[in-house]
Design goal:
This protein has 5 helices and no strands. It is mostly helical and about 220 residues long. Helix 1 runs antiparallel to helix 2, helix 1 (about 1-75) runs antiparallel to helix 4 (about 140-150) and helix 1 (about 1-75) packs antiparallel against helix 5. It starts with a helix and ends in a 24-residue tail after the last helix.
Length: about 220
């Protein structure tokens, strides 16, 4: 009786021990997979969302600057013209600030190259803008309007395309990080069940029967 009692007791202890090991193993497995989700989430939170926000602000300030120039052309008083010039200065300084902030967020050669293209086209546009604003101050608004609707259009279009390309790049990379997180989560869900089954079996087979090696069944 004593031997039989000890045998049952030993079996119970072994069963609990195996269950504990199984639980620990599943926990470690889940933590490893969820680490991939955390990395993707951190990439989104720490890089792509902030950089997308900065590029969007750059694009908005660029368009607002261009609109303000048009307002300068139609200003009917000295006070109105000065208010527009003040607005242009504020938007230009803020765009420079956002561009400097974005520089610290650049993470690839493609991103750096596109940012340099924006700098080049924006610089070309600023040179033309200064010429145009000088004509406006002199009262030569007709000549300034010719520049606004003429040679300024090409650098404006190029700068607009560059900042749009930057925005598209950031959105694309953010989508990639999200998909990597989704893939890690999906792998954790399917892998955690399949990890303890033979390689030829699907997770659903736990509830039916062990799978045969046939590809059609597994």
């Amino acid at each position: 009786m004593l031997g039989g009692s000890m045998t049952i007791r030993l079996k119970v202890l072994l069963a609990f021990g195996l269950l504990l090991l199984l639980t620990i193993g599943l926990g470690v497995f889940a933590l490893n997979w969820l680490a991939g989700v955390n990395v993707a989430a951190g990439e989104l939170r720490g890089k792509w969302l902030p950089s997308t926000q900065v590029v969007a602000r750059m694009a908005l300030l660029f368009e607002q600057y261009r609109i303000a120039e048009g307002r300068a052309l139609v200003a009917t008083s000295t006070e109105a013209g000065q208010a527009v010039e003040s607005d242009l200065t504020v938007r230009l300084q803020e765009l420079k600030r956002q561009r400097a902030l974005y520089q610290s967020m650049i993470a690839s050669d493609e991103e750096a190259r596109t940012a340099r293209q924006f700098d080049q086209y924006w610089g070309e546009y600023m040179a033309i803008s200064q010429e145009m604003m000088g004509l406006i101050r002199q009262g030569a608004k007709d000549q300034a309007a010719l520049i606004y609707n003429g040679k300024a259009r090409t650098p404006v279009a190029n700068a607009r395309k560059s900042v749009t390309d930057l925005l598209a790049l950031n959105v694309r990379e953010a989508d990639g990080a999200a998909l990597r997180g989704k893939a890690a989560y999906a792998s954790a869900r399917t892998g955690s069940s399949a990890h303890w089954l033979p390689p030829s079996c699907s997770p659903a087979s736990r509830y039916t029967e062990w799978c045969a090696p046939s590809p059609r069944r597994c």
